[in-house]
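Protein in question kept in full:
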Amino acid sequence: MSEHGPISEEPSIFDGDDESSGRGVVRIASVAALGGLLFGYDSAVINGATSSIKEIFAISEAALGFAVASALLGAALGAFLAGRIADRIGRLQVMKIAAVLFFVSAIVTGIAPNLELVIIGRVVGGFGVGIASVIAPAYIAETSPARIRGRLGSLQQLAIVGGIFLSLLIDWVLAELAGGASEPLWFGLEAWRWMFLCMAVPAVVYGVLAGTIPESPRFLIAQQRIPEARKVLTALLGEKNLEITIDRIRATTTDGAAKPSWRDLRRPGGGLWPVVWIGLFLSIFQQAVGINVIFYYSNDLWQAVGFEESASFGISVFTSVVNIATTLIAIALVDRIGRRPLLLIGSALMTVALGAMAVCFATAGTDAAGDLELTGAAGPIALVAANLFVIGFGMSWGPVVWVLLGEMFPNRIRAAGLSLAAAGQWTTNWLITVSFPSLASFSLGFAYGLYTLFAVLSLLFVVRFVSETKGRSLEDMEAGMRPAPEPGTA
């Protein structure tokens, strides 16, 4: 299918014909994307609990930064291992493992009597997040028709931002019901503990629904389970050209008797394949712009510049709604205008927004207590810039990077390549998250100036190295095993 056809011919993801969407493919992708909802919930739920954890356990800013970022250490490890585990036991089994980890994390963190157990619970949940961040985009890409793969792949990011919204909304509601996040709510447990415990419900739902969807046909073919793969492909895509499709998948997933391994990421002459480097740097830049600072620390950030706790919760919830709305824009556009244009537009918007925030915070005054204070127009400008930043990220780097990571790697190295890229993403996320409290104490203007620099570099990286994948089948991604094409070519 040519990527240059008229827009009017693009199908909706809810079309019912086999060629465009496949029977049940939207439902299957939606179930897989539920891992993203838990990913988003687990990542952002800490936002409503940071002040309470700091107060109750009497810890320093550095210790708070480590506690917040501890989940990301587990996520980096989970992402690094997920691909190899998925290549051995299958995509569905890995989803079920992630669901169990989310459930355990919710309980342990919610009832933790000390900071050490909070951190352990966060690391366990982070391991689940890392697994989900790899397995959902890989599975969705492997079960989606090429024409709508971008939209279905974007469901992962929609679920992530939906999880972020859900966690921030629950944080806000529970804090309001208790009269503060540190106040007791039900059964003598403080509101911040219930923020974590609530994650147990979607974890159970995810684990149950993961048992209702089929295994990835590309994994089945790689395991020589051809009859099962044929049945799944028939249900997903219909019977048209079925044997040709199976033969093409088999040619790109098997290599004699050899099983996929980390060694496949290296070129015969040494060094990683160019596509692996591109995936890794896409992941790094996605986090280096500081997006998760908004979702992990926004309550503390807005309180630090003069907003009350209740108003800060409200601002965080509103920002998450903006994030959802802009992700829907990305879903509508990613298969129409392509991945690369969205990344370029997003980088430009993020650069402008982050630059404005850097100026506002760098020129802010202080109140009588010596705390930072945004006066005059600086407060509204910073709020608008923060939401413009979320818009730029939500319509581009948020969903599009996950789409690209799910589809850009050739079949044989998809799981390993995605694991390496996602591990790099979570490592960068950890570095940004753990450093923010110290950077903010030094200068918020400097912190956001640094994120602005990364936004500029992300723009230059896309211009030079990222090629379009819109409309190409996964079996055509063998081009990724050759040097990257010139910018702008598909």
User: Anything to note?
Assistant: Residues 1-22, 480-490 have pLDDT under 50 and may be disordered. The chain is about 70% helix and 0% strand. The first helix runs from residue 25 to 44. The longest strand covers residues 184-186.
